[in-house]
Amino acid sequence: MYAQFIKELIDxxxxxxxxxxxxxxxxxxxxxxxxQCPLCPVCLKRTIKMTGKKKQWMHGYAQRIGIFWVELxxxxxxxxxxxxxxxxxxxxxxxxxxxTDAFQQWVAQSCIGTSIQAVARMLKLPYTTVERxxxxxxxxxxxxxxxxxxxCVDEFAFRKGHDYGVAVMDAETGEVxxxxxxxxxxxIGRVLAPVSxxxxxxxxxxxxxxxxxxxxxxxxxxxxxxxFHVIQLFxxxxxxxxxxxxxxxxxxxxxxYVCRLLTQCPEKLTEExxxxxxxxxxxxxxxxxxYQSLQHFRYVSKSQSERQAKRRLNAWVHRYLFCPCSAVxxxxxxxxxxxxxxxxxxxxxxSNGKMEGTNNKIKLMKRRGYGYRNIQRFALRVRxxxxxxxx
Length: 391
Hints:
By secondary structure, the chain is an alpha/beta fold. 46% of the residues lie in helices and 20% in strands. It contains 15 helices and 10 strands. The longest helix is centred in the middle third of the chain and has 19 residues, at 227-245. The radius of gyration is 31 Å and the shape is elongated. The two termini are 39 Å apart.
C-alpha cells in the first residue's frame, strides 16, 4: 500500500522507483527506466551510450516535508549510422528546467485565489521563478472558446514616431485578448485573429489601416467608428484655431479654460461663458465655422433611428462639404467617405472608452522600462481578473 501511494504521488509514466534518500532538507526519489536503447531521432537507427549523469527536478510538495525531487539518468548517445549525438529526455520533463511540467502547473494553480508572493514564500522559491511559471501555464486556465460579440481595437504609441502597439479588448467585459507590436494592417490583423470567428461589432478609430484590416480579418462584422475619435477631429481643429487666434496665451491655466469653453457642450456652460464664446466667434470666422460644425454634428449624433441619422448626416455633409473654412472641409471629406461607419457610431452603444484606460496603463508600463513580455503578462492578468480566476 505504501509503495502504491508513492507510485501515485510520483505519477510519471514507465518509471521505476529505486529508493528514497534525504540530502540535508531535500527528499529525493531515485527513478529509472526499464532497459532500452533509444533510437536516433534522424535516421531511427541504433545508438550507443557516450556519457551518462543523473539530474534532479522538483516534482511535488507535501505539507510536512516540503518540496520533493525526482532523480533520473540523462544519457548522451551517438548514432552508429549517421553519427548524430543527442541527450535523452522524458515526457513532461524539460531537460533545461528545474522542475517538471506537472509541478509547474501545480504551482500556477496554487497562485489562484492568493498572491504569487505568498506561494513563493510557502515553497521557499524565488518570486521571479514562480511568476514565470504562473504566466506560462495561466492561459490553460482560461477558456479557449473566445466568442465576444463586440471588440475594441486601438493603436497606441509608447514613443511617438518610434514604438507603437495595438490591442484588442472585449467591448462589454473589458477583457484584453491580445497586445501586439506595430500599428500597420498586418499587426492589426494578427491581433484580431483570435476573435474573428464570432465578433459582430468592431470599434476602432478612423485610421485607413484599421478599416482594411477589419474588412480582411472580420468581413462579416460591422465596423463602428468610435465617437470620441470623431469628436477629436473637431477639438483638434478648434485647438489649432485657438493657437492662431492667440487665445489662452501660454499659461497652462488659461489654455485649459479656453479649451474647456470651446469643447464643452453649450448646455453645460453658464450664460456668462456662452457669451464669452459668442464674442470669440465674432473675432474669428474660422473659429466660428469649426465651433458651429461641432454643435451641428452633436445634433446629428442625437438621432434615434437609422433613417433619421442618415437624413441628418446628409444634411450636415451638404452644408459643410464646401465650407469656406479649410479645417471644416477636411473634416467633412473624412466623414463623407465613412458614412456607414459614422451611422453605426451614432446608433451603437459601444465605444473605446475602456480601451483608452487600458492603453494608458500599457503606456505607463512601457515608459517604466517593461518589455513586451511583461505587457503580455499584464494583458493576461486583466483576462484572468475579468474571468474571476484571480481574487
